[in-house]
Amino acid sequence: MKRILMTIGIALAMPAAAAESAAPNAAPTLAQALERAWQRAPVARALPARREQAAAEAQAAAAWTPAPPTVSLATLNDRLSERRGRSEWEAEVSVPLWLPRQREAQRALADADAQRVDATAAAARLQLAGELRGAWWALAAARDRAALASARLEAARALQADVDRRFRVGELARTDANVALAEVRAQEGEIADARRAEQAAHDALQGLTGAPAPDVLAAEAATDASVAAPHPDLAAAESTLRSARSRLELAERSARAAPEVALRLLRERDDSGMRAVQAAGVRLSVPLASPPRLLRETAAQRAEIAEAQTQAERVRERLALDIAAARRELAAAELQGATAAERAALAADTLQLLQKSFALGESDLATLLRARAAAFDAQADVRRQATARAAAQSRINQALGVLP
Asked: Are 232 and 126 in contact (CB under 8 A)?
């Protein structure tokens, strides 16, 4: 019976002892895991190209003309008809011009788009952090369950060995031996299911990071909400709104097509054989405004602004609700952790008393098994609430927009 008590005591303390024995710096942190996952994310790999596109838009807005100049060349002669030597050559260089305040609007749009690229990337990184945090603590919970199942199996085997020995010497009935063996088989099935769930959770985390999960899943530190930076989701929504407003401003400044100024060179020889005549000139074209075209383009931009404003408002509301829910979850986990620790202490004391009573023949096996199950459940609840508290702290950080 001393061996059984020692086995059960070690089994009950197994999850905590395993965590304490591991070196704190022996495994990657959640921040390092996020960096690995971000390097594999499609958004991260496309980010340099998107930044390059934003830089190109800024360069285009800083140019002297809204579009590149065009060069045209034309010729006309009578070689296919009369062949009298008539010929005409014309060359033209056309340069488009900015409309009033159009260039400033284009620059503002380029700046807004560049900010939107970075803000969208930050929001995507935070979203990936949320997925990683969920997988991180799902694996921690699965490991707790597997460790508890292993502890239960070891304790059940130790108890079954003692019951079988006492059955062979006639101290216990065969029904007790059958019950003890059935308990071992039940725990074997439980540990198989727990290990399957643990492997599935491990694969989910590895699918994000591309590397095996660390042996130690460290908790995050608490974040002071008063010093937290603006939430990336809200920053992304506001940057989308700024970009939409800049597009509307540019559409209003582009009510007509760009005017053009052209330099024309003409060289002409008629059929009289006289010397060729050369001429130079300037052409200026100013397109007229089109109210229907302007209304069509600005209406689309106003609709985009309305959607962006609504989205930003929804993001603010969601963030406030997420922060409040995460804080309630953390408070509940702390309260439940305290009650679970007290319950585990009581269950362990009861189990020790019933172990002595069973060894003396004063209580039956069924009572002992119920007490042992209660002790294991209480210890499992302690580990579960510790993991739940760490997960709740991660959710608060996620709601505040803080990366690991």
From this structure: yes
CA 80 to chain centre: 70
> Are the C-beta atoms of residues 90 and 24 closer than 8 Å to each other?
no
Cα distances (angstroms) measured from residue 18 to each of 12, 156, 200, 261: 11, 20, 21, 79
pLDDT at 292: 76
The model carries a pTM of 0.77
**Is pLDDT larger for residue 327 or for residue 277?**
327
Rounded Cα distance between 327 and 330, Å, is: 5
Nearest to 238 by CA among 404, 107, 104, 118: 118
Cβ proximity of 148 and 158 under 8 Å: no
pLDDT at 211 over 50: yes
